[in-house]
Amino acid sequence: MTSHNRFSVAVLAVLGTTPLALAADISTLYRISPGDTVEIGIASITDRTQRAVVQVDGTIVLPEVGAVSVGGLTRPELQSRMQTILPTKIFHVRAPDGREQMAVVRPSDVTATIAEYRPIYVTGDVLNPGQQAYRPLMTVRQAIAVAGGFSLLRARTNQAGPDPTDLRRDYEMIWGEYTRDYFHSARLRAELDKQENFDTQPPQGSPLAPALAAGVAKVEAEALKLSLDNFKQEQSFIEKGAKDATAQIETLTKRAQDEAAGVKADEDDLQQVTKAFKAGNLTNNRLADVRRAVLLSSSRALETSVELMRTQRQQEDFVRQIERNENQRRIGLLNELRDTEIRLADIGTRLRAASQKLQPLGATAAPLSIAGETVRAQMTIVRNVDGQWRKQASDEDAEVAPGDTIEVRFSNEMESAAAQ
Predict the structure, then answer these.
(1) Pairing relationship of beta strands 59-62 and 66-69 according to DSSP bridges
(2) SS3 for 53-80, per residue?
(3) Per-residue pLDDT of the chain (420 residues; tens, 9 = 90+)
(4) Could you count the other beta carbons within 10 Å of the beta carbon of residue 315?
(5) How far is CA 103 from the centre of its chain?
(6) Can you list the alpha helix ranges (DSSP code H) found in 358-402?
(7) 3-class DSSP state for residue 184?
(8) CA-to-CA distance for 302 and 256, rounded, in angstroms?
(9) β-bridge partners, 120
(10) d(CA 172, CA 178)
(11) Which residues are bridge partners to 50 per DSSP?
(12) Which of 3, 98, 215, 337 is most buried when burial is the number of CB atoms within 10 A of its CB?
């Protein structure tokens, strides 16, 4: 197991402690690794304080001592090893009179500490990516701040481009288009569901004045009310016609039944009169009168039947018209909603482009919103654990360790969906 791995394991072992406690123990938990700089001092020989960089093999080279293996040691272990080795060595010092003499080194005279740690690296959407010096208790937030802060266009400062004022104006104009179609889409969905209200809250992250968004929402709300009222009135008119047709059908049906009974009675009377006429008991005039009565009642029954069929057909037309109006209304709303969603997607693309041009260059500025979604910086720490490089999602308050790489990337729901 490498020295850095042992440090990572030690850190993981105390993750249950508070961040403050963990920070306090780093100086004793950390194990020296290649790239660190250690400082060895001898109190009795003030000019023999030496700094040495730990080599790839874990050793340092000290004058009059030679190579010493320090890789994998904690700071107290380094102190103990130096206190063991240095007193056994012979050191020559020059006295004030110029003579050279040997110096005795006691273990208590020896000091050993880690002067500089291996650097960390920040990459991704920051202004100045690259290597940074590690400092104890350093957090991801501090590392990003040293790197210049968040930036999607870190090279833009060296390039000529549009005036930021014009870019901001275009950004807000596109937001205006997005807000308009956002509320229009909400209104269409409410109208499809025959709901009289919809969410009038502006899209998330909108930079527009609340009064402007409220005005757009109010216009769409009034349009929704007018459209629903108009459709209800039209449907009510047709439904009233269908209801009147139903009542007329009932009247005509009863009349047809009565007239059918009258026709049958006249026909029965005609049969009796015809028998009596043939028997010579009635005159021809009486037979003619009965025949005219049968013809008249049959004509009335036929007219009523025709009128009944016409009214029934009219009622069916009313029912079909109600269904047709509803279907045509839904088809029209769905087509309009489709076109609105296409425009929203197009505006979202333009909004993303405008937003990226205006992404902040400073460490304290918050990223702009894209198409109603707040852009967030995702931070990942890449660390060597048990001989393997592992990535772990992090927040800005997480502590970093020597040798870590911090990856910073802006993301939102829209980008995640596009990636999938």
Answers:
(1) antiparallel
(2) ECCCCCEEEECCCEEEECCCCEHHHHHH
(3) 444 443 333 333 333 333 334 344 555 678 888 999 999 988 888 777 889 999 999 999 988 788 999 988 999 999 999 888 888 887 777 777 767 777 778 888 888 988 899 999 999 888 888 999 998 889 999 998 898 887 755 434 444 556 666 777 888 899 999 999 999 999 999 999 999 999 999 888 788 888 999 999 999 999 999 999 999 999 999 999 999 999 999 999 998 898 889 888 888 888 888 888 788 777 788 888 888 888 998 898 899 899 999 999 998 998 999 999 999 999 999 999 999 999 999 998 888 887 777 665 443 344 555 554 555 678 999 988 777 888 999 888 999 989 899 998 876 544 443 333
(4) 18
(5) 70
(6) none
(7) helix
(8) 9
(9) 132
(10) 10
(11) 40
(12) 3
Question: Could you give the angle at which helices 164-192 and 210-278 cross, rounded to 10 degrees?
Answer: 30
d(CA 271, CA 285): 15
Q: Whole-angstrom Cα distance, residue 177 to residue 348?
A: 10
Residue listed under structure tokens 């018209």? 321
Place of tokens 């919103």: 369
User: Tokens representing 268?
Assistant: 């029965």
Distance CA 311, CA 309 (A): 5
Within 10 Å of residue 303's Cβ, how many Cβ atoms?
A: 13
Q: Looking up tokens 């809250």, which residue turns up?
A: 201
Select from 226, 186, 223 the least CA-distant residue to 202. Answer: 186
Give the Cα separation of 326 and 228 in Å (integer): 12
Which residue type occupies 46? Answer: T
